[in-house]
Structure formats: C-alpha cells, structure tokens
Design brief:
- The structure is a single chain.
- By secondary structure, the protein is α+β, with helices and mostly antiparallel strands.
- The protein folds into two domains: 180 residues, no CATH class; 145 residues, Histidine kinase-like ATPase, C-terminal domain (Heat Shock Protein 90).
- It is built from twelve helices and five strands.
- Strands 1-2-3-5-4 form a five-stranded mixed beta sheet.
- Strand 2 and strand 3 form a beta hairpin.
- The chain is rod-shaped and about 120 Å long.
- The N terminus is likely disordered.
- This is histidine kinase.
- Its EC number is 2.7.13.3.
- Keywords: ATP-binding, Kinase, Membrane, Nucleotide-binding, Phosphoprotein, Transferase, Transmembrane, Transmembrane helix, Two-component regulatory system.
- It comes from Nonomuraea muscovyensis.
- It catalyses: ATP + protein L-histidine = ADP + protein N-phospho-L-histidine.
C-alpha cells in the first residue's frame, strides 16, 4: 500500500526551482560558501566585460563616456542582486545595453542567471529580448572594424553562448535534484516495507502463540472439574507458550530497537526464521494443544512427473532442502491457517498437505470442516489473511481461500520454486 501523499514529508514535493536557490523577492537569499564564490566570479566576469567595452569609448563625447561609466558601475554592482531578481536584472540590463556598451557584461550575467534559475518559458523570451536589443547598438554605435552586421553577429554569439551554458547548468542541477529525490523516496519506501515486514512477523508469531494460550485457557474454563493431571498439563502448556510469546516479542522489539538506533540505515538483522523443516514441530505443537492435525509432505525432484508423486522420504528431497525463503513463506501460511482453524473451528480435524518440487512450484493446502463453534471465540482483527496474501504475492505466488462445495474450508497457496 502506498503512503498517502499528505503524510509524506513536505520536501519531497518541493519544486526544483526552489531547490536551485532561487529567491522570490520577499526574503533575503542565504548564500552558501559555494554561492559566494560563484557570485564573486559572476561579478568579476561582468566587470571584465565592462572593461573590455571601455576600450571602445575613445573619441566618444564626454557626457556619453560619463554615462557609460556610471551605468557600467551600477550594472556591475547590480549583479549581486541576480539571485533575488534575476529576470528584472536581465531585462533592465538588456534594455540599457541597446545603446550603452558597458552594461553588456551585466546583461550577459543576468541572462545566464535566468537560464539557470528559470524554466525555458521564461528564459527563452528573455534571451530573445537580449538578441533584439543588440540591433539598436549595432546600428547606432557600430564598431569601425566590425560594422553593424559584425557587431550583431558577435552579440548574438555571446548571448547564445551564455544562454546555452545556463541551460546546461540548469539541466545538470535538475538531474542531481531528481537523483536525490529518488534516493529519498527509495529510503522512505525501504523503511515502510521494513515496518510492514516486522508487523507481519509480529502478527504471525504472536497470533499463533496467543491463540494457543486462549485454547488451553478455554479448556480449563470449560472443564473446571478435569483431573488434576490434565489441569497441570494445560497450565504447563500455557506457561510454555507464554514464555515463547515473550521470547518472540523480545526478538521483534530487538529488531525495532536496532532499526531505530541505526537511523534506518544499513541492514536490519532478522531473528531466527523458521523453515519448512520446522513445520512438523509446529504440527506436533498443535497436536499437543488438542488439535487434530494430519500432515503430509510430498516433494518430488525436478525429473519426476507431476502425476507420479511419491512421499518425501522416497523422493530424495528432504524438507530441509527446500530454499529457506520458500520454506519460511510456506511455514507462515500453514501457521496462519492453523491459527484461524483454532479460532473458528477448534474441534474440527485439520489436514495439512505440502507438495511440489523444483520447476513445478510448492503448494500448501490446509482444509478443515466448517464446524459450528458455540463457545467464546478468540478475537481477531481480520487482517491475517490479508497480510498472508501480501506475503505470498511478494514471493511471486498466489493464495486462494474460502468454503468448498463439500462443506470444508480450504486455504491453498502456490509458490514458485526455481529448479
């Protein structure tokens, strides 16, 4: 189940433009050390371009030279505002550079800033305005060596270079931002899946133990006049299952504490997990609790035909040879089925069958008659079969359960077994 969007940390939905360090004009922009270095480089670049343009002022009227010097100095100083008002800086400097040469450095820096910090729908028109602003300068104040056409071509080349460079920088920043967001999402998904896995383990283990406690306690309540030997045996079973439940709970809490202390980083150690070989011990435990359980394992090697199923001992495949992950899933399926049988039909006989082999897959089937139970039912949240379905599907298998025409309730799980 995916996490609701409103519960996801807000930074996952922040727009890339904000993460690129843009200001909105309403609050000061906090510059990092890298930002200061970049801003100093941009300021020096604007000053250098202004100084190069100053060499072309020989022979110009004194008033125009003074205006060029004042506007050039102010435009270079305005470069420090490029993070807060990049579009304004680019448009104003471009408009002034249509006649004044020393503003050209600030105009180039402003265009580069807009290309980095704004999408193309904003930066594109700004670049086009910069190109249009080159025409009056080339016509009204042409360079003697280049002429009007040469000045326009040179200006277009400078504008295109600054704009292309800004687009490349923006694309790289967006790529880095995207990779970081994917890493954050992957980490959150990993934590969520780990929490769900631990929750399933708690349900599977504790539900089994507590149902055993309830079964023995119900027997004592139903037969208070039972022989002292039977009462002592039931009390011993209650004590043993209570101790096992506490032990299982300590293991799960230990896993949770490790995950919390590690901050969600690194692998989380699993408590000892059951395998298919432990299924016989589970069945025997249920028998000692008073359940009528029959268990059959029919495992066939890959070369055997599916129709010629033979018992495990003769097939050459032992229950311990089943892959651990596959055996653990089958164990949890049978464990949950037996727990449900104790809840809803505690006196009904239960048949457990495990069959299959490499290539064919492993099938676990649990059947029991749907007998009416008039005693006090063991409470449940109704999430056991839902969690079991998720567990089986995560393993690549299928799970089906429900009443049969003959009156039995059947739970059948199939899991793939790679040869």
């Amino acid at each position: 189940m995916s996490e609701p969007r409103e519960h996801v940390p807000e930074y996952r939905w922040v727009l890339p433009s904000v993460l690129l360090g843009d200001g909105d004009g309403r609050r000061p922009v906090r510059r990092s050390t890298r930002d200061w270095i970049v801003d100093i480089v941009m300021f020096l670049a604007a000053c250098l371009l202004a100084l190069l343009g100053a060499t072309e002022l020989d022979g110009e009227p004194d008033g125009l030279v003074l205006a060029e010097q004042v506007t050039g100095a102010l435009s270079c100083a305005a470069v420090w505002l490029r993070r807060r008002w990049p579009v304004t800086l680019a448009l104003v400097s471009a408009a002034m550079s249509s006649y004044l040469e020393l503003v050209g450095g600030a105009s180039v820096v402003g265009l580069f800033t807009v290309a980095v910090h704004r999408p193309f729908k904003i930066s594109g028109p700004v670049a086009a305005f910069n190109i249009v602003a080159l025409v009056p300068l080339g016509v009204l104040r042409p360079d003697p060596s280049l002429g009007p056409g040469g000045m326009v071509v040179l200006g277009v080349a400078i504008v295109a270079t600054a704009f292309a460079w800004g687009i490349v920088v923006r694309a790289r920043r967006q790529l880095v931002w995207s990779l970081r967001q994917r890493a954050v999402i992957a980490a959150e998904d990993a934590k969520r899946l780990e929490r769900e896995r631990i929750a399933r383990e708690m349900h599977d283990v504790l539900a089994h133990r507590i149902s055993m406690l309830s079964l023995h306690a119900g027997a004592l309540e139903f037969r208070p006049d039972a022989p002292a030997e039977d009462i002592a045996r039931a009390a011993s079973a209650i004590r043993d299952n209570a101790h096992l439940a506490l032990q299982d709970l300590r293991e799960v809490i230990g896993v949770l504490r490790h995950a919390s202390s590690a901050g969600g980083d690194g692998p989380v150690p699993d408590p000892p997990q059951p395998t298919l070989a432990d299924l016989r011990s589970l069945v025997e435990e249920c028998r000692q609790a008073g359940m009528k359980v029959s268990y059959t394992a029919q495992l066939t090697p890959e070369a055997e035909d599916v129709d010629t199923v033979v018992p495990t001992a003769a097939s050459g495949i032992a229950e311990g040879d089943v892959p651990q992950g596959l055996g653990r899933t089958v164990y949890r399926v049978v464990q949950e089925a037996l727990t449900n049988a104790r809840k809803h039909a505690p006196d009904a006989p239960v048949t457990v069958t495990v069959r299959g082999g490499p290539g064919e897959g492993l099938t676990a089937e649990v059947r029991n008659p749907r007998w009416a139970h008039h005693g006090r039912r063991i409470p449940g949240a109704g999430a056991g079969l839902i969690g079991l379905t998720e567990r089986v599907e995560l393993a690549g298998g299928t799970l089906a359960y429900g009443p049969e025409p003959d009156g039995d309730f059947r739970l059948r799980a199939w899991l793939p077994w790679s040869p």
